[in-house]
Write a structure and sequence with these properties.
The complex is a heterodimer of chains A (about 110) and B (about 110).
Chain A lengths: L4 E3 L2 E4 L5 E6 L6 E8 L3 E9 L2 E4 L8 E7 L2 E6 L8 E8 L6 E2 L3 E5 L1
Parallel strand pairs in A: 2-11
Antiparallel strand pairs in A: 1-3, 3-8, 4-5, 4-9, 5-6, 7-8, 9-10, 9-11
Chain B lengths: L2 E4 L4 E4 L4 E8 L5 E7 L6 E7 L4 E4 L2 E6 L4 E6 L8 E7 L8 E2 L3 E6 L1
Classes of the chains: A mainly beta (about 110), B mainly beta (about 110).
Chain lengths: ~110, ~110
Amino acid sequence: DAGVIQSPRHEVTEMGQEVTLRCKPISGHNSLFWYRQTMMRGLELLIYFNNNVPIDDSGMPEDRFSAKMPNASFSTLKIQPSEPRDSAVYFCASSSRVTEAFFGQGTRLTVV
Amino acid sequence: SQKIEQNSEALNIQEGKTATLTCNYTNYSPAYLQWYRQDPGRGPVFLLLIRENEKEKRKERLKVTFDTTLKQSLFHITASQPADSATYLCALESGGSYIPTFGRGTSLIVHP
């Protein structure tokens, strides 16, 4: 397996634009997490899916953020409209419950 | 409120020495605790998982202890090498949620 695959690796966008981040989890994993990492706040959980169903979205900052998991092999995180304070590295991770989480390489988002 | 605390100051040690990193937590009753390594520009990589009923876990040059009374985990790297230089994060799950919540991490720098 190629591991967790995220795209794009880097995204630079203007304030107010829509941004969509994509994630392909490891086949067979039933848990998927979206995290955001910044120097100020570290690695924060945004949303957790189990068997494609959102279980905990309490970390989603506000209505501008939305996440979907239409099937077991694909998830998206959308920001609309984007703001400069959304600039961060966004990680997707997958796991099989009580085991380690496998992280993707991350998407570095810069909103100017 | 729940807190996971890791030393924010970088740990500098000489090659060959043992590095010891600390993870303290409050208001958690984790069933297990995990340690991850993160290199610049990459996602965290799982190293070790220790359960609440385990006092110690070893893997090659790595050793983790877990004291649920002190609410503390220690992470040791023996015979450290410059290649061990990275940021090390601890992660706890809360109340059977299976969601890893991460500390801010501690940077380790091993000097040749």
